[in-house]
Specification:
353 residues, 4-stranded antiparallel beta sheet, alpha+beta, 27% helix, conserved putative lor/sdh protein from methanococcus maripaludis s2 fold, Elongation Factor Tu (Ef-tu), domain 3, single chain, 6-stranded antiparallel β-barrel
């Protein structure tokens, strides 16, 4: 009897403890759910604290070297190549003969043209003399003179053809590519040689619209060449496009004198110095990624009393991923740098550490 009573009491105690544990767990779960619900109402964001810093104000732009001059030397007449006098890598001067085209048929034509000219000269002289005595009419004399002129033109035309059998370099430079060999048959306009002049090169770069006002024609620009880190180069701005491309970048060309170690196609970086001549300036900046709808909007969110506040600032120049702030911030504010797409003015936020 006593044992039965003890069992009943122990069972009641265990049931009571179990009920208490279930109730305690339920209370904890309800507390956690409420906390999660609070967090769901907030938007996770990252922030930076606005501060003044020393910014490298030099602006860099990458590009590739292009030959100052290049051309495809083409044939001006049709025919068969007899001799090729240069090879790839040969240095040539403007007007130098690069190849010759077979001229046998042309020489026959020029002989015929010269014979026709001699006959025209004799005929014209006869008509000139006859006209003085009234033996021919003025119209007959004029026809004779016209035939003489046509014969002279024909001789000159054949002379041009003979000259064109010698393919001459249009510019001074280096033979970069040779597309013909002896025996090749070419037609008018056939490309025969690619000539490049790299005594001076053009570095072609794109400059952002925010920086274009800082450069000018004739300005000297230091240049760093990736594959020649030990060498220093500089060039002079010779062209600034009057119109930007679709990305609001302006094509700029910088002429660089080649000391012999630069090649067309090399990758390089132009460093545009500030007008102040100082490498760094102390200024208030925020990351470019903080702006809503791009830097040009001037809008960003700051943290105020646990919420996001949309403000408008006046921006200065852009230095890489940093944007100069001229007004609208004083320093010390917490600026939101991620999560803005989900924010509205007054949205509750949760700062991610």
């Amino acid at each position: 009897m006593k044992k039965t009573l003890i069992y009943i009491i122990v069972a009641a105690v265990l049931i009571g403890l179990g009920a208490y544990k279930i109730a305690d767990n339920k209370k904890k779960q309800q507390t956690e759910v409420k906390e999660v619900a609070k967090q769901v109402d907030k938007i996770n964001v990252n922030i930076v604290t606005v501060a003044r810093e020393n910014i490298d104000t030099d602006y860099s732009a990458n590009g590739t070297f292009l030959p100052k001059q290049e051309m495809n030397q083409a044939s001006e007449i049709a025919g068969r190549i007899v001799n090729v006098l240069v090879k790839e890598g040969s240095k040539v001067g403007a007007g130098q003969v690069l190849a010759t085209i077979k001229r046998d048929a042309i020489e026959v034509d020029i002989s015929q043209a010269q014979n026709n000219l001699q006959n025209a000269i004799i005929d014209n002289q006869r008509y000139e003399n006859a006209f003085k005595t009234g033996g021919v009419t003025k119209q007959q004399l004029d026809n004779s003179r016209l035939q003489l002129k046509n014969a002279q033109v024909a001789v000159r035309a054949q002379g041009v053809k003979v000259n064109d059998t010698s393919i001459r370099a249009g510019i001074s430079g280096t033979i970069n590519k040779k597309m013909v060999e002896p025996g090749t048959v070419v037609s008018i306009g056939t490309s025969m040689f690619e000539i490049v002049n790299i005594n001076s090169l053009k570095l072609s770069v794109l400059v952002d619209e925010s920086q274009i006002g800082r450069i000018a024609l004739g300005q000297e620009v230091p240049i760093n060449v990736n594959v020649l880190p030990e060498d220093s180069f500089s060039g002079r701005i010779t062209f600034i496009a009057p119109k930007s491309d679709a990305s609001l970048n302006f094509p700029v060309e910088i002429e660089v004198q080649n000391r012999g170690n630069l090649k067309a196609g090399m990758y390089a970086t132009a460093v545009f110095k500030t007008n102040h001549g100082a490498e760094t300036q102390n200024m208030l900046t925020v990351p470019a990624e903080a702006f809503v709808n791009g830097v040009s909007s001037g809008q960003l969110f700051i943290v105020q009393n646990g919420a996001a506040k949309l403000i408008k600032v006046t921006i200065g120049k852009v230095y890489g991923d940093k944007v100069q702030i001229l007004s609208g911030l004083n320093g010390g504010e917490q600026v939101i740098t991620s999560g803005q797409i989900n924010l509205e003015n007054g949205s509750k936020i949760n700062i991610v550490k």
